[in-house]
Specification:
Blueprint lengths: L1 H18 L2 H26 L1 H9 L1 H5 L2 H7 L6 H50 L3 H5 L3 H43 L1 H14 L1
């Protein structure tokens, strides 16, 4: 039953993708690249927090570690200098992340709006090319529903939520893998707690 639902969902996504024009597909691919860039910035921002926390909690232990040795190669010798550098990196990537999040949301909304308009226009053009007999056997209300309501649902009820979920999913997976790389035990413990809670 689950496999059938998954195959049905994939076929629906393929059907939706086939409705897009070539320029819309290109814009969708660019939007996905923008989401991947946002994910990378989020990971770098979060990754800079871990050594910063280590400096603040155990500065002596950090100074003897391999991370501090890497910072010494770029001229940062004291833990204070490294901490200030990491704070600056975190602040920069936090600002970039917020700006890019706004851009992704804006572009996702524009994509959904443009797709709604284009699909509605193509559907209307398709009906206008039909013969007179075509309209005699069909209710104009049904045709209006297809042109306006169904295309609106495609843009705002399917595409926009799907893009938003994709952006969040990429960030969650990347952050989860980053946390696993830094502290697998604590990450798995928290994950098991949240899974058992739900």
């Amino acid at each position: 039953m689950t496999v059938h639902r998954q195959s049905s969902a994939i076929s629906k996504l393929r059907e939706i993708y086939s409705l897009l024009s070539r320029s819309e597909k290109t814009r969708l691919h660019l939007l996905l690249c923008l989401m991947l860039l946002l994910t990378l910035i989020e990971v770098v921002g979060v990754g800079s927090v871990f050594p910063l926390l280590q400096i603040l909690s155990t500065p002596d232990r950090f100074a003897e570690g391999t991370v501090a040795a890497h910072f010494k190669t770029i001229g940062l010798t004291s833990t204070k200098e490294i901490a200030l550098f990491l704070i600056a990196v975190f602040a920069i990537f936090l600002v970039l992340s917020n700006l890019l999040s706004v851009l992704v949301l804006s572009e996702s909304t524009k994509f959904a709006w443009t797709n709604w308009r284009n699909v509605a226009t193509r559907a209307l053009e398709h009906y206008l090319r039909q013969s007179y007999e075509f309209f005699l056997s069909r209710n104009s209300t049904d045709l209006t529903k297809v042109v306006m309501q169904d295309s609106h649902f495609l843009g705002w009820g399917i595409l926009l939520p799907l893009l938003q979920v994709t952006a969040k999913f990429l960030v969650i997976v990347a952050l989860g893998l980053t946390l696993l790389a830094f502290d697998p035990f604590t990450t798995l413990l928290l994950l098991s707690f949240f899974v058992s809670a739900y």
